[in-house]
Amino acid sequence: MSEPGKLMPIISKAYCSSSPITLTVRQRPRVISGGGFVVMNSTQNAVFMVEGCSSLGAKGQLRLKDGHGGLLLSITKKESIVQSLSIRNRWDGYSVDCEGEKKFIFSLTDPKCPIGKEIKIQIEHQEATTKGCRQYFQVNGSFVHRTCSIEDHRGNIIAQLGAKGSNGRDWYNVTVQPGHDQAFVIGVLAVLDNIHGESTRC
Length: 202
Prior knowledge:
alpha+beta, Porin, 12-stranded antiparallel β-barrel
């Protein structure tokens, strides 16, 4: 767990809370709104939106937006000859400023043959780069069954998924622990959604 009162922003400290936050993820039908998903808070207000291939018209492209439609994160699946020979797929997440400049935020790698393999999440942000270090996270459990967690390198859970009633695949909860960046967690869920062929996939 994080130290009491300590915020650990990766995208922005605006998305870090001093108490646990439970958000509800609702997948959108592709035929109605282009797919992707909406993330709501306890008052049923949209706090994040994720757009995928069906909305953007390009495979391996994801966008994370805030509840007002402002772009927070652009996520791209790397495609290259070297990447095609790798045993893992790689996804890179970037923030984009008002002038269109991109800043690398994180990379996520998933095994091309996922049986028995872990999904590694590598984080690199301004503070970590300045200090010459990197933070590592890991996804454990089953995203498909909504029983997975995101853990730090010490094994502390920073976010936990849970099914929501009988519609667990279309609606599910994610609880983010105090101090951790909710926007980053949703960015990771966007990639997991695409990897498993769900709402953000064409």
